[in-house]
């Protein structure tokens, strides 16, 4: 292996990693030799992912945490430092979407986004990243190295109707990434983001639903296929390695060409 890509022995915290993209990022890092802590809302899922990490020969820790809650997020710091001694890589992968119109449309019966769900989606996709950076930032800055990777989405680069809260939050996460990168660059801490396109988790879809998504991808995505969850992990691994040591404040789309179509 080229030494610049080596993350063996690094310590990683991935929030929102109990399933889907986050889980697969965690497994890629474990395969690459890193010790990984994952958080999520489900004790069963986080424990299972931690077990998978251990089965790959690395130390895995699963913690139940609501990343939108600042006090819970701050409570993670001593737990991570007690488990690993220090933290090298922070990956913010919490996210979710609730469709909803901004206001009622004429002759439409589609659901209108209410204030509660608006704030909920902003917290899930944006505030959570502030919380973890606020909590772990002092540790990373004091050490003078490390990196943060925020998982945004193509909705943050290219708007769609009926997901205004999600799109606004993901776009905000991109600007948050840039601002944090500027603040932390003088202290040797890099901050980047990735914007995944369509990466359905086969575990969460019925066979027929997945086939429908695959058919749609062949018709609409330039590379004519859905993304593979592992591919997001590989991009994240690159951004966390010394191979990307001159990259900060950037958002890289991994979407099969969707945002340029």
Keywords:
single chain, 261 residues, alpha/beta, Rossmann fold, seven-stranded parallel β-sheet, 7 helices
Molecular structure report:
By secondary structure, this protein is α/β, with parallel strands linked by helices. The protein has a single domain, classed as NAD(P)-binding Rossmann-like Domain (Rossmann fold), CATH 3.40.50. It is 44% helix and 14% strand. It has helices at 20-31, 43-55, 70-84, 115-143, 164-184, 207-220, 229-240, and strands at 11-15, 35-40, 60-64, 89-92, 147-151, 190-196, 251-254. The protein has a 7-stranded parallel sheet with strand order 3-2-1-4-5-6-7, with helices on both faces. Helix 2 (43-55) links the parallel strand 2 (35-40) and strand 3 (60-64). Helix 1 packs across helix 7 (229-240). The longest helix has 29 residues, at 115-143. The protein is globular. The mean pLDDT is 97.
Biggest sheet overview: 7 strands, parallel
SS field, number of helical segments = 7
Secondary-structure content class: alpha/beta
How do the helices and strands follow one another from N- to C-terminus?
A: EHEHEHEHEHEHHE
CATH architecture: 3-Layer(aba) Sandwich
Going across the major beta sheet, what is the strand order? 3-2-1-4-5-6-7
Rough outline:
globular
Q: Output mean pLDDT.
A: 97
Strand percentage lies at 5-15%
Summary?
By secondary structure, the chain is α/β, with parallel strands linked by helices. The protein has one domain (3-252): NAD(P)-binding Rossmann-like Domain (Rossmann fold, 3-Layer(aba) Sandwich), CATH 3.40.50.720. Helices cover 44% and strands 14% of the residues.
């Amino acid at each position: 292996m080229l030494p610049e890509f080596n993350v063996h022995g690094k310590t990683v915290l991935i929030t929102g990693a109990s399933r889907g993209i986050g889980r697969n990022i965690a497994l890629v890092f474990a395969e690459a030799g890193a010790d990984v802590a994952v958080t999520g809302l489900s004790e069963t899922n986080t424990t299972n992912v931690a077990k998978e990490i251990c089965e790959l020969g690395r130390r895995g820790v699963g913690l139940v945490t609501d990343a939108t809650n600042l006090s819970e997020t701050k409570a993670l710091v001593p737990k991570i430092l007690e488990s690993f001694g220090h933290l090298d890589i922070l990956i913010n992968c919490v996210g979710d979407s609730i469709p909803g119109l901004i206001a009622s449309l004429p002759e439409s019966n589609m659901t209108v986004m209410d204030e509660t769900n608006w704030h909920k989606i902003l917290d899930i996709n944006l505030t959570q990243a502030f919380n973890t950076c606020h909590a772990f930032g002092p540790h990373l800055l004091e050490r003078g190295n490390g990196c943060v990777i925020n998982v945004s989405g193509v909705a943050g680069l290219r708007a769609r109707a009926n997901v205004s809260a999600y799109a606004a939050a993901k776009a905000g996460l991109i600007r948050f990434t840039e601002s944090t990168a500027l603040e932390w660059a003088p202290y040797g801490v890099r901050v980047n983001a990735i914007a995944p396109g369509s990466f359905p988790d086969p575990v969460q879809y019925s066979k027929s639903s997945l086939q429908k998504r695959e058919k749609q991808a062949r018709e609409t995505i330039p590379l004519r296929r859905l993304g593979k969850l592992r591919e997001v992990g590989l991009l994240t691994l690159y951004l966390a390695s010394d191979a990307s040591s001159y990259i900060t404040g950037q958002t890289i789309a991994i979407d099969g060409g969707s945002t340029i179509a």
